Amino acid sequence: MWKKSIAIGLLLTGASTFAAASDAGEVSQGRELAERRCASCHAIGETNASPNVLAPPFRNLYRQYPVDALRPAFLKGLEVGHRDMPRFVLTPQEVTDIIAFLHELNPCRKPSSDDTAMARCFAPME
Ligand code: HEC
């Protein structure tokens, strides 16, 4: 078990270094990937409902998890806690991109003068 934790720690460190280097590109890649692979069930927009009512809208994920903590699960294919969903395989780069996109959906990530974003940040969870 400890070996696994160390591996995850290394992955997280690697990811944040990488994310700092090329954030913008990854967000658009991640969005595109989410549209293709996840949007048939999950809402990936800022206000729409999920096509599959059981699937949490991606914009709410950050309220349940620090989204970086999803990385190991995404690398494994989210077998855990994802019973109504076919197991998917993502490359480490795709995982980095999706996580960058999930960060982008988090309106509380940075202070903002955008009232709509701030209202979403403090809104009750759907
Ligand atoms: C076929 C429908 C479907 C697709 C496609 C799908 N999901 Fe899901 N997802 C679900 C459902 C349903 C849940 C709710 C979990 C449950 O109770 O099974 C879920 C839950 C999740 C969760 C929360 C897991 C938890 O433990 O709370 C994450 C994160 C997630 N999905 C990520 C993704 C990503 C990333 C993709 C695309 C690569 C994706 N999903 C594609 C149906 C889907």
Q: Which helices and strands, and how do they pair?
A:
Blueprint: H1 2-21, H2 23-37, H3 61-64, H4 71-76, H5 92-105, H6 115-122
Helix pairs in contact: 2-5
Descriptive notes:
Residues 25-106 form the Cytochrome c domain. This is Cytochrome c, mono- and diheme variants. Residues 1-19 form the signal peptide. The structure is a single chain. The protein is mostly helical and 126 residues long. The N and C termini lie far apart (35 Å). α2 (23-37) crosses α5. Residues 5-22 have low confidence and may be disordered. The protein has helices at residues 2-21, 23-37, 61-64, 71-76, 92-105, 115-122.
List key phrases describing it.
iron, 0% strand, binds heme C, Cytochrome c, mono- and diheme variants, 6 helices, 53% helix, 126 residues, Cytochrome Bc1 Complex, Chain D, domain 2, mainly alpha
Count of distinct strands: 0
The CATH architecture is Orthogonal Bundle
- What helical percentage do the residues reach? 40-55%
State the helix count.
6
Radius of gyration based on Cα positions: 15 Å
Largest sheet: none
Bound molecules: heme C
CATH topology: Cytochrome Bc1 Complex, Chain D, domain 2
Which geometry do the CA atoms define?
globular
In terms of DSSP E residues, the strand content is under 5%
Structural class of the helix and strand makeup? mainly alpha
- Overall pLDDT, averaged? 76
pLDDT below 50 for ≥5 consecutive residues: which ranges? 5-22
Task: Estimate nothing, just give the exact number of structural domains.
Answer: 1
